Amino acid sequence: MVTDNQRRPDPTDNLAARPTSSPLAALRYLRQAGATVRNVAEVVRFGGLDTGEQASPYEVAAEQVNYRLRRYFPSDAPPDGRPVLLIPPLMLTAEVWDVSPATSAVGRLHRDGIDPWVVDFGDPSREPGGLERTLTDHVLAVSDAVDRVYAATGRDVVLAGYSQGGMFAYQTTALRRGKHIDSLVTFGSPADSTAPLPIPVSPEMLARLATGLVESGVLRRIALPSWAVRLGFNLLSPVKTMQGRVQFLLTLHDREALLPRERQRRFLESEGFTAYAGPAMAELLEQFVAHNRMLEGGFVIDDRLVTLADIEVPVLSVVGTTDNIGHPDAVRAIRRAAPRADVYELALPVGHFGMVVGSRASRDTWPAVAAWVHWRDGHGELPANIGPAELVEATSPRPGAAAAAVGQAVELGIDATRIALSATRRAVRVATGVVTDAPALLPRLSRMSHLDSSTRISLGLMLDEQAERSPREVLFLFGDRGYRQQDVKYRVDSVVKGLISAGVRHGDRVGVLMSTRPSAFTMVAALSRIGATAVLLRPDGELRREAALGQVSWVVSDPEQVDAVDELSGVRWAVLGGGPDWRQLRPDVIDLERIDPATVELPGWYRPNPQRAGDLAFVLFVGEGATTRAMRITNRRWAMSALGTATAAALRPGDTVYSVAPYYHSSALLMSVGGAIAGGARFAVASATDADTFWAEVRRYGATHVSYTWTSLRAITLAPPNPNERHHPIRMFLGSGMPSNLWRRLVERFPHTRVLEFYASAEGAAILANLTGNPIGSLGRPLPDTPEVRVAAFDQEVLGLELGPDGLVRECAPGEVGLLLARVEPTDPLAGNPLRGVFEPDDAWQSTGDLFRRDEHGQLWLVEQASALVRTPHGVAVPAAARRAMEAIPAVDLAVAYAVPEGADEHQVLVVAVTLRPGTELTDSELNRACDGLLPAHRPSYVQVVPSIAVTTWCRPLWTALRKAGVPKPGKSRTVWHLDADRQHYHQV
Q1: Other residues' Cβ atoms within 10 Å of the Cβ of residue 34
Q2: N or C: which end of the chain has fewer CB within 10 A?
Q3: Which residues contact 524 (CB under 8 A, 6 or more apart)?
Q4: CA triplet 102, 108, 110: central angle to 5 degrees?
Q5: Three-state secondary structure of 245-258
Q6: Which residues, 6 or more positions from 33, have their beta carbon under 8 angstroms from its beta carbon?
Q7: Cα separation values, 334 from 86, 175, 306, 343, 738, Å
């Protein structure tokens, strides 16, 4: 039998239930009760117990609008100490780095010979204008602090941040491209918003909720008070919060036991939390929750584009393996977000707060951080518990948020059934949200189906609609700048005034001769807003020919193209771009930048965006030299392509379409720009075509969709792996004209990225798309709500439709080559002069001018332009068929097919020229196998390997120079094969 004297004291025992037979025990209990009463009174009166501890000394080295810069231990700063700049999260005060002497981060760093500095954002509710601060304000504040610490110490700074403070550290380093920053140390800082969450809500649902909150605008008008921030923080770990409070209550009689943790308790219970500014929260939700730009890139700081992929300084990421707030998966995503950085990891079995404050932090975290700093300075070894992140094993999977919620409910004695029912209701709402994603596309489809010649629609009108809907959203990305909807609208309207002041009117045809730059897009949009037609002249095209085909009365160029003014006569010339600074131009050239829009009074005839669907919006050009043709794009055609692209690619706000095609190519204007505007997404244009620039800009812009033309993606498939290529954000490549061998290489290199190949006829309204990317080379089927198409029987000898006995045209059987026709309404004025009575007496169709075949699955395959067929002594040859046969050879890189005259009678023969991939060669047997599937008449008479094939600025291979050289002849860098007389085998010449 155990007596009272033999029992161990148990502070959790109820006093009333304890035996009181001993007078000493009764006295002891009375003393405990008295101590409890005194401690409770002190807590109630002063908010906590007086520990007698003093905060670490510091001075305010600088005080700016949005922050104060503290330097700790200023009178005892180590002379050669590396400065470490510590950044708190917005929800906590700067005292998180100095909660108590025993757990002080600044104190421990100072004792280890390091110079600690702290960014103090203060409490926004107590700072002038604090509740109006944005996320950008805080990043710029940290950047300013880096400059000041560097100026004061003369040494690069170790930037260290806790939770959101670590996110600021990442963003600041990326913004500065590492200038004056030695390395980064982050504590539980997430870089991926799709990782598991500490609440029973899916990341997709959270993104949807974040988008709704941002679009409502409510967060820009309110702020979260500190008590709400504290409540939210504690609810993220309810079990630990409840356990801590119970333990405190049960230990109130023992002051000595409470004092070591009292400062920490007071920090978490009341003193450590600040208000959270609404605009800062809105920006956080918009850029990093709704759109996950920490991982994908393309976030905007002070209108500058930033991506964590620009981080190249070493990173030490401290991961709490039991952290419910900064989930290890989210924290470890920095390896994917910053592929060029050397990322190291310190994994500790602690929660979110325990990694920076508490006994574990004092014992493990701060000694390791100090050792990291010394190791970076070349003093000492890297601690054994820090290693390269790629070598650290991930933690074992943990239960999902819903399971965790149920588990916490059981621990707290809450009815688990209620939690389960709540989770079920949330799951139903998530499922409903997924289902309602599809109806989001319905307005686009509806708008497409209701377009007729009188519908008011244009590029300028759709831009205005987006600007009214989301004025602060970023629309256009170029270089390292982001241009918001409201700013683009202001610039376009200003250019409209300049053009009108110069004399441009509704209905004029204005040539735009510019390289790809923001001014080019501004000009095209301004002409649309006036109601003029933009004739997009190609800088490397034949200016006189294109100006004549486009019937231009005006030309607007950038400053670099102004020397071409002498090539045209009878045309008025203006210049846009290069800024308003004074420059010397010819007297007959108008400088639109010198016109002050504020002084321009708009005339009575001006109505913004007056054009209808049937009006001519743009004139583009295809072909080269004498084969140059004008493509006349009506507003209906542009809108159909834009809405069709947005629908087929499922574009939505937050997506970024990155175009490697110049703006004057149909792929850029109709798909990249048009699709992005129609889908509420952002669009960007490439500044160069090399692989390094491509991957740097994909990361900087956060490109989710890449628009291509012809061979524009060739460089990235041939280049060696790029660090920025790892974990890239691209979900889709979309464009037109991609050769089948390049398509195969692209799919092999990027197996998880879809290819969406489009076809839009130069004449007519046919729009096709291979929505799945399979089979490679197919152009798929017509997009929904676009005109019906049929393949009509076509006589290649007479270059005309085949008519039956009844005078009607026969539709081709599967596999048969014919002319692709698009149905039009007989009374539609947009149809021009359609073919009438084709398949039925009263139908109307437009010819695309292209030969197609339909396979047994209904997929459409482009064969060749009808005008490109070659008549040879052996029959009609199809150059594209010979080219595609060569592209099937693994060694072949580029291929072009063309006809040249041969012999005394100068009959036409078919020639194919190819370039080879590095380190490969072409053999007779490969040629023979490749051409086995071709009809004898379609086999090229000559095949030559050439060192290079020229391409246009929009990356279409050129064969003009090769054709001028005539029948191929072998040389030092040229190998030639000739087809035998039996047209069965090739032999090398």
Answers
A1: 11
A2: N
A3: 459, 512, 534, 536, 618, 663, 669
A4: 135
A5: HHHHHHCCCCHHHH
A6: 15, 253
A7: 19, 16, 15, 8, 34
827 vs 690: which has the higher pLDDT? 690
Q: Which two tokens stand for residue 956?
A: 């279409």
pLDDT computed for residue 450 by the predictor: 74
Which residue shows structure tokens 């504690």? 234
Following CA atoms 963, 966, 967, 968 in sequence, which dihedral angle do they give, to the nearest 10 degrees? -70
Instruction: Report the distance separating Cα 138 and Cα 120, nearest Å.
Output: 10
Q: How far apart are CA 137 and CA 676, in angstroms?
A: 29
Q: What are 836's strand-pairing partners? A: 844
Q: Are strands 942-945 and 907-916 parallel, antiparallel or unpaired?
A: parallel
Number of Cβ within a 10 Å radius of residue 793: 17
Q: How far apart are CA 369 and CA 380, in angstroms?
A: 13
User: Do residues 101 and 362 lie in contact, with contact meaning Cβ atoms separated by under 8 Å?
Assistant: no
Tell me: the pLDDT tens digits for 583-622?
788 889 999 999 999 999 999 999 999 999 989 999 999 8
Is the whole model's pTM more than 0.70, yes or no? yes
In angstroms, what CA-CA distances link 2 with 5, 7, 11, 21, 29? 8, 7, 18, 15, 20
Structure confidence by residue, pLDDT tens digits, 532-554:
999 999 998 899 999 999 999 99
Element (H, E) at 872: strand 870-872
Alpha helices in 251-358 (DSSP H): 255-266, 278-284, 293-296, 328-332, 334-337
Tell how strand 589-591 and strand 572-575 pair up: parallel
Output the six-digit token pair for 460.
Answer: 């300028």
**Three-class DSSP labels, 334-354:** HHHHCCCCCEEEEEECCCCCC
Instruction: Kindly state the DSSP code that residue 77 receives in the 8-state scheme.
Output: -
For residues 934, 940, 941, 945, the Cα torsion angle rounded to the nearest 10 degrees is: -130
Q: Is the distance from CB of 671 to CB of 758 less than 8 angstroms?
A: yes
Number of helices followed by number of strands (H, E) in the chain: 30, 40
